[in-house]
Amino acid sequence: MERLGERSAARLDTILRHLSPRLAAAPAPISIPTSAQVSVAPHSGRFSYTLDNDVLSTEQRQFYEDNGYLLIRNLVSDEDIERFRKEFTRICRREVKPPGVMIMKDESRRSQFGQSESVVNKVQDFQEDEELFRYCTLPEVLKYVECFTGPNIMAMHTMLINKLPDSDQQTFLHPMHQDLHYFPFRPASRIVCAWTAMERAHQDNGCLLVQPGTHKTALKPHGYPEWEGKTNKLFHGLLDEDEKIPKVHLVMEKGDTVFFHPLLIHGSGINRTSGFRKSISCHFASSECHYIDVKNTIQEHLEKELQEMVSKKYNATSVELKDIWNFRARLVQGERINL
User: Fold this and answer.
1) Is the CB of residue 177 less than 8 Å from the CB of residue 267?
2) What general EC class does the enzyme of this chain belong to (predicted)?
3) SS3 assignment for the chain
């Protein structure tokens, strides 16, 4: 029991050092922004979740191997974040209308705030918006993405989240989930999300919440949580969440970027502040990944729900889940092979 306690304490210390630069050793040179260095003895054998290159240190690769995420401090510049913020505002005001963009709103706030960022809580699928899509092509982001996907990189899913103040209704609480639930392509080890804080993200304004190590588990059944009056469309969560697995709040400063595995169980809390909590993200995948047929799998009900939405919006029939993702996908580096 004593050895188990020592291992648990060492694991917690590793995670805390990864999240807090004040607790960490000296950072790497500014030319290659990196997360805090951690002292973890590498396992023998090949790494399963990262590829060989000269970007990640052995310690960083081991941290991702063990925990399923890697936090890189100060990766995206203030200048780029301000440009993304201005474009988001233009979209909210309908000054620009990029094709294909899905804008999610809190309609109950429209009468008070009109067409503004105070109403829009998410801009999704911005692959046709030249300014926002720049995020998916930033060299400093792709440099790290390649460590997980390899050189042929597809941008598969894009989001700018504007978590609204929500201390009472909990409307924008996202239940714990695995992103792979939404994806009809594999292998999971060649998919990664890059998630960048556009301002300080902390527990009070609904920062990301992760369960380290859960990327090593299988894809679990998802559905709508039993929150009466508090469920958003397609905000699926685990149907059987294991409350015993420790959770870690990812406190991040503006420009910090976390890369995480699509099987990592994560979510976000509610925003108890009076301000907004913005983030921009993209799920990347190797173009060598392949589509799968989700029929007769635990993802089948998601395909049916999306088919109903697409049919209603575009009057389309016989749409498969892979068709929706193929439409969204954009090559950002290398050669387009399968996706």
Assistant:
1) yes
2) oxidoreductase
3) CHHHHHHHHHHHHHHHHHHCCCCCCCCCCCCCCCCCCCCCCCCCCCCCCCCCCCCCCHHHHHHHHHHCEEEECCCCCHHHHHHHHHHHHHHHCCCCCCCCCEEEECHHHHHHHCCCCCCEEEEECCCCCHHHHHHHHCHHHHHHHHHHHCCCEEEEEEEEEEECCCCCCCCCCEEEECHHHHCCEECHHHEEEEEEECCCECHHHCCEEECCCHHHCCCCCEECCCCCCCCCCCCCEECCCCCCCCCEECCECCCCEEEECCCCCEEECCCCCCCCEEEEEEEEEECCCEECCCCCCCCHHHHHHHHHHHHHHHCCCCCCHHHHHHHHCEEEECCCCCC
Nearest residue to 102 via CA among 263, 304, 310? 310
Contacts 24+ apart (CB under 8 A), 21-28: 21/73, 27/73, 28/57
Structure confidence at residue 291 as a pLDDT band (50, 70, 90):
very high
What are the distances in angstroms from CA 267 to CA 85, 249, 290?
23, 10, 26
Instruction: Give the C-alpha distances (Å, rounded to integers) separating 186 from 199, 263, 286, 287, 291.
Output: 32, 12, 9, 10, 7
Q: Can you tell me the mean pLDDT for 177-196?
A: 96
Which contiguous run of DSSP H or E holds residue 125?
A: none
Cα separation, 208 vs 55, whole angstroms: 25
What is the mean pLDDT of the segment spanning 207-222?
95
Q: Which residue has the tokens 């009076």?
A: 274
What is the model's pLDDT at position 19? Answer: 53
Residue 185 β-bridge partners: 291
pLDDT tens across 135-169, in order?
Answer: 999 999 999 999 999 999 999 999 999 998 875 55
Cα angle: 93, vertex 99, 101; to 5 degrees: 65
Residues 267-289 have a mean pLDDT of 94
Q: How far is CA 86 from the centre of its chain?
A: 21
pTM score of the predicted model: 0.82
Helix axis angle, 300-314 to 321-328, nearest 10° = 60
